[in-house]
Amino acid sequence: MPGTEEELVGILKNNGVDFTSSLPCEKIKTLLEMIEDSFFHVPLTREEEGVGISAGAALSGKKPAMFIQSSGIGNMINALLSLTGFYELPLAIFVSQRGIYKEKIAAQLPMGQRLPMILKGAGISYSIISKRDDFRVIGKKLKNVYMKNMIHAFLLSPAIWGENELEVASYKFKDNTGDIKPSPLIRLRRTQLSAKPKLTRYEILEVIARYLAEKIVVCNLGFPAKELFHIKHQPSNFYMLGSMGMATPAGLGISLSTEKEVVVIDGDGSLLMNPGTLATAACLAPENLTIFAIDNKAYGSTGDQPTLTGACVDLEMVTRGFGIKDTVKASTKKELINAIKRTGKGIRFIHAIAIPGNRDVPNISLHHLENKKQVAGFIKT
């Protein structure tokens, strides 16, 4: 008879799960090791980015599953509702439910014990898996997740794994430090001191529009999406509509699931919300991903309030610090064109310096589910 973890891994395989992501929890440490060994796996820096990455994977036809602990749900709710649920994308979430069984950390109690109520209030279906016999529920629910494009959370009690699995000492640590090369000293470039904005975001999009043809483009929400739709709509454009900070994660998920070239049009405010995604992207290093960050030092869609890139943050330096080495800063038409045209192996980051301001353009007239259908169709071709 297979062990408890092996049985769950078998259920996942039988239901076609082929894209996983996780953050650690010592209650499911052995399971997480097996997940990493058995499936394509993305190590996350934050649960919310996992929602975006999984959404991109689902858009590309994958069957994603996330593995987190109770507290992670609190970091995911908005993205789950305004991205995964809004676009009707499938996602199975396996939650190590803390605070309900022999919990030694008092801070885990409030979230863990209220988790079912939180999910119910958010309209997210869930199943309570309190013993191994409940595993039969998982297979049935997983079929619905991927057939009906729905979100479902499986709340895994630590009691499932038995006493031995609750001992931290039983974990076999994988020492990967030998594979990590120390980063060279990052020096402040002259361009970082002298680059001045020449164009607005709309004008930058006009400059690069012709170079986006036949590429999968994931565009940041609000005015950036409206401006791109007005300048160059194509069936391969995916417009973010309600999930700030999710453009780069979604683009990363797509790039890991297809060989087609992917361009993310992101912004300074959005990237500052989920900067850890740059580390995840650097770690996985898909060769078909370009992050085109338009930095106008403002939250353009909410009234041009200043972001910290106008005070103390250089996004290109941040990106290089996270491990993405192919970066460039651009502000003139020539620099922008040279940057977007340049090809090469490896993930790329283009830091486009812009003048604040929005163009008065109409709202996107394309229904969001039709947008999803068009992009998914393009990816399949």
Topology:
Blueprint: H1 4-14, E1 19-22, H2 29-38, E2 41-43, H3 47-59, E3 64-69, H4 70-74, H5 77-85, E4 91-96, H6 109-122, E5 125-129, H7 135-147, E6 151-156, H8 190-194, H9 201-208, E7 216-219, H10 223-231, E8 237-239, H11 247-255, E9 262-267, H12 268-273, H13 276-284, E10 289-295, E11 298-299, E12 305-306, H14 315-322, E13 327-330, H15 333-341, E14 348-353, H16 368-380
Parallel strand pairs: 1-2, 1-3, 3-4, 4-6, 5-6, 7-8, 7-9, 9-10, 10-14, 13-14
Antiparallel strand pairs: 11-12
Helix pairs in contact: 1-7, 3-5, 3-11, 9-10
Please tell me about this protein's structure:
The chain has 381 residues and is α/β, with parallel strands linked by helices. The chain has 2 domains: 4-177, 3-Layer(aba) Sandwich (Rossmann fold); 197-380, 3-Layer(aba) Sandwich (Rossmann fold). Helices cover 40% and strands 17% of the residues. It has helices at 4-14, 29-38, 47-59, 70-74, 77-85, 109-122, 135-147, 190-194, 201-208, 223-231, 247-255, 268-273, 276-284, 315-322, 333-341, 368-380, and strands at residues 19-22, 41-43, 64-69, 91-96, 125-129, 151-156, 216-219, 237-239, 262-267, 289-295, 298-299, 305-306, 327-330, 348-353. The strands form 3 sheets. Strands 2-1-3-4-6-5 form a 6-stranded parallel β-sheet, sandwiched between helices. The longest helix has 14 residues, at 109-122. The chain is elongated. The protein starts with a helix and ends with a helix. The model is unreliable at 163-193 (pLDDT under 50).
